[in-house]
Design brief:
34% helix, 9 helices, alpha/beta, hydrolase activity, 4-stranded antiparallel beta sheet, hydrolase, single chain, HAD_sf, HAD family hydrolase, 278 residues
Length: 278
């Protein structure tokens, strides 16, 4: 049985220094591998054990590993995951489907058409956010791939009800809002990781889909998978989100990333070794 593994990246598989959550004594901390450099500085890490497991997983001919991220293509391309290059990658929360590193134009046209039919325009959402945000806590306002908007904020200064009010406003216009660390995302509802994963499964003929993620933007991805995992940290953990086929891990931080890769590998091996059915 062929297996498709769709994994979120930030705070699921890879971790910034601030997100590592290393609570053990220093001599017992895991060895780390840097997998992303930004502006000449190390930015993201995974444990060396996770790196070894992931490289072996990507070498399995019966497994299709698909990085699945809200990052833009440019942000994704900074990451150097161990092992063979991924044949498929999903960026911009499903808005960009990369095949051998090249954006699939047909997929992007389908995404644009659905957003135009079902959602308020991006410019309207950006204008509302710009008017509602307070310069006291707003650090940056950005648009990703002409698909969605996000803010970088000073989390400690962000009013407690601001995200809730934006969520209610966006809901009426076909958009969803997600708070992840210092970033607030406003994303059209049709723009989902799960839709792009379904397309990869169709193209590859995968019979089993596994997934992992930590944020509300990963909920649809986890629901669409046959089996899934979420770490003990993140937006989903804070909200208490779960589903019958999604395991909640006790691990937090970079050790959760290692455990997720281990679960992927164990399940993919079991699938490969399962007896064929008539």
């Amino acid at each position: 049985m062929s297996t498709l593994i769709a994994s979120d990246l930030d705070r699921t598989l890879i971790y910034s220094a601030a997100a590592l959550d290393l609570t053990m004594p220093d001599p017992r901390a895991p060895r780390l591998l840097c997998v992303e450099i930004h502006e000449h500085k190390p930015l993201s890490y995974m444990t060396e054990n996770a790196a070894t497991l992931l490289a072996a997983l990507k070498a399995d001919p019966d497994t299709v590993f698909v990085p699945t991220t809200t990052r833009t293509r440019k942000q994704y391309q900074r990451i150097q995951l161990p092992g063979l290059p991924a044949k498929f990658a999903i960026c911009a929360n499903g808005g960009q489907l990369l095949v051998d590193g090249v954006a699939d134009r047909d997929w992007r046209r389908l995404v644009d058409a659905r957003i135009a039919a079902e959602c308020a325009p991006l410019d309207e959402v950006r204008a509302h956010i710009a008017a509602a945000a307070d310069p006291a806590w707003l650090r940056k306002e950005r648009v990703a791939e002409d698909l969605f908007a996000y803010l970088v904020v000073e989390r400690a200064l962000l009013p407690g009800d601001w995200v809730k009010e934006l969520t209610a406003w966006a809901e009426e216009r076909g958009w969803t809002v997600s708070l992840q660390g210092r970033k607030i995302y406003a994303v059209p509802k049709p723009l989902t990781k799960s839709a792009a994963v379904h397309e990869v499964a169709r193209r590859t003929g995968a019979e089993l889909t596994l997934a992992a993620g930590d944020s509300l933007l990963d909920a649809d991805l986890l629901l669409a998978a046959d089996e899934g995992w979420r770490p003990g940290h993140g937006e989903l953990a804070e909200s208490g989100w779960t589903a019958p086929h999604v395991d909640v891990l006790d691990e937090r931080g970079v050790l959760a990333g290692e455990e997720i890769v281990r679960r992927f590998a164990t399940r993919a091996t079991a699938s490969r070794n399962a007896p064929a059915t008539a």
